[in-house]
Every structure is written in C-alpha cells, then in structure tokens.
Amino acid sequence: MAGTVFFSVSMSLDGFSAPESMEAIVATPEQRERDPRLDGWVAQRMELSVRGRGRVQGRAGAGPFRVVVAGHAPDVRRASAVAAVVGGRTTPVRAGCVGGRRRGYRSGMGGCVLLAGGGSPRQEERVWRAAFEGVGRMVYWPFALPDSRIAQAPAWLRAGLDELGIDVEVDAWSSLDGHRPADLGAADLLFVGGGTTSKLARHVHEHRFDQAVRDFVDAGGRYYGGSAGAVLAGASIAVGALADDDDPAAATDDRGLGLVPGVGLLPHANIFAAADQQSWSTTLGQPLLAIPEAGGVRVAGASGTVLGPDPVDLVDGAGRTTYQPGEVVPLTLR
Which of 21, 164, 168, 304 is deepest in the core (most CB within 10 A)? Predict the structure, then answer.
C-alpha cells in the first residue's frame, strides 16, 4: 500500500505486547530491521476495517509507519483503543473478537457475537469475560425489560461486573429515543440484556437501529446478547412465540438482527424439554442452537465456539448434536 498509515495503540496488536513504554516514533523498514521492539508492532500484515474508507492494509516494507504507544501493560496480550489515520481522517478501529491464536485484528472477520443462555452473571462468567476482554466502553440496552424495571437495570449490571471484577465504562440507554445509530461508534461492546424479545425487537426496528448494529459488528464491535438479546441476534425471533408465549407480534413481525441467521437461537435451553425443542425446530423449519443458562457461544466467521461451562445442543428436527466447551459448532453466517 502506498503512503503512510498511522496507528495509535494503547496495548498491543495481534497478541504482541510492547517491551516497554515508548514515545511516538516513525519507523521506516530499515529502522524496524535494526530495532526488534518495533518488529512485533508493524511487521505483521494487518487488515483493518475502516468505516467509510473500505479496507486499509498495512504490511512490512510499506512504511514508514508512525507507532504511538499511549499506554503500556507488560503482561496484557490484547489490543485496545486503536485508530487508523488515512488521508488526514481518523477512524476508530475496534478490538474485534478475541479468540484463536491471534487476538484482535483477524483478517476479514470484523467483530463477533457473544450469545449467553440467560443465567446469572456468575453462571455466564465465561461469556462475560470473553465479551469484556479488552473493552474500554460499552453501551447497555436494557429496554427488553418491563418499563418499570428499566431504571434499576444499570445497578444490576454494575453489581454483576463488580462481582466478576470487570472494570468498564458503562453507558446505559434506557431507550433509543434521542440516540442516533452513529452514537454506537464510540463503544467497543453492545450489551443487550433479557426481557421480552418482541418488545426489544419492536423498539430496535422502530428506531431503525437494526442496520446500525450490523454495521457496528462488521466494523469490529462486539455484540453480547443474553436471553432476549440472544434471540434478537438471529434472523428470526419466532422461537419466542413458541417457547415463551411472547407477544403474538413475534409471530407476525419476527425479524431479528440477522447476526446469526442460519439457526434459531434458544436461550434458557435447560428449562425446556428436549421433545419441545425438537418440535419447535420442526415447526420453524430450521435448526435451533440451544444454549443453557450456564453456557454461551462466541460466534465469529462461519462457526461458533462453545464457551461453557455447560455444553450446547444443535437441534435439527428429531436430530440433536451436543457440543462441549471448546468445541466448534458449524453455523451459516452472513
């Protein structure tokens, strides 16, 4: 790539930690050869999704590169708060999905979706830790809850974060009124909690935030969906009308976000009989990813990784396949 690409890095790229805090430096290919401290930062090929500018590729030998180390934590192996400056414009580039051998910037992947079974923060601990790793700021949508409970929702979330020792800036939106899709841009994580799925979906669609969420994930943001938030991540929320006697609107306007469109998403799976799950899969004409309350799945690319501690089931009519923590569930994604 011709020209200059600037990176502002607070921790590390692709799993490499800075050997020490450094001032802003301009690194030419020759300097990178002489100074091994720089090689871990810029000798990797990186493909960054930049909103409105297509994809920008950084490759060794294509410099010079300006590397700005804004902060340093020697034992941290994650990327955070990264910006690419191209042609004078600065655009945030999020940490994406953590997983696999490389962390953060995974070519062609964008962000990821964390699906939780709707249990307590302690039951979902593995999902929460995967969702919040490297996250500085999150937006919380609690409006699937009854209106009378929305005001108390941020305190519930903060208590769960404190219980797990997670430190993050929380921006709770009690409604989408007064917010624009662009307001998601400053967040690393969108946290969508439980309640009534049809109420949640109706509010999101009425405010035209469905495409905004898809764009957010495509640009590297993370989406956590617990209970109703998990159902919403699918292409259809119709399973809610069957499993929860949800508002009949779920059967007539069953649009989800389409983040995981190949399967129906069934949280709280441990409280439903296996025969019912198989019947619902047959009625809907699609497989169901059945996630128990003490379980979760990280979806990135064309598959989902079971986070545990409990296994998940892929229910397809009369068939059922169980996947243990660490195993990969094949999914059909956008």
Answer: 304
Positive or negative: CA dihedral 199, 205, 210, 212 = negative
Per-residue pLDDT tens over the stretch 300-327: 877 899 999 999 999 999 899 999 999 9
Task: Say if residues 77 and 103 touch (Cβ distance below 8 Å).
Answer: yes
What's the DSSP call for residue 18? P
For residues 51 and 218, give the distance between their C-alpha atoms in angstroms, rounded to a whole number.
Answer: 9
Q: What are phi and psi of 243, to 5 degrees?
A: -85, -35
Extract the residue ranges of the chain whose pLDDT is less than 50.
Answer: 1-27, 32, 37-95, 98-109, 333-334
pLDDT at 54: 28
Compute the distance between CA of residue 185 and CA of residue 206 in angstroms, rounded to an integer.
20
pLDDT at 33: 55
Are 237 and 197 within 8 A, CB to CB?
yes
**Do residues 14 and 46 lie in contact, with contact meaning Cβ atoms separated by under 8 Å?**
yes
User: Pairing state of beta strands 319-323 and 264-266?
Assistant: unpaired
How far apart are alpha carbons 126 and 135 in whole angstroms?
Answer: 15
Residue 139 CA: distances (Å) to CA of 78, 142, 191, 192, 229? 21, 10, 6, 9, 13
**Cβ atoms of 113 and 225 closer than 8 Å:** yes
pTM: 0.70
Point out which residues pair with 172 in neighbouring strands. 140
Helix (H) or strand (E) run with residue 172 in it: strand 169-172
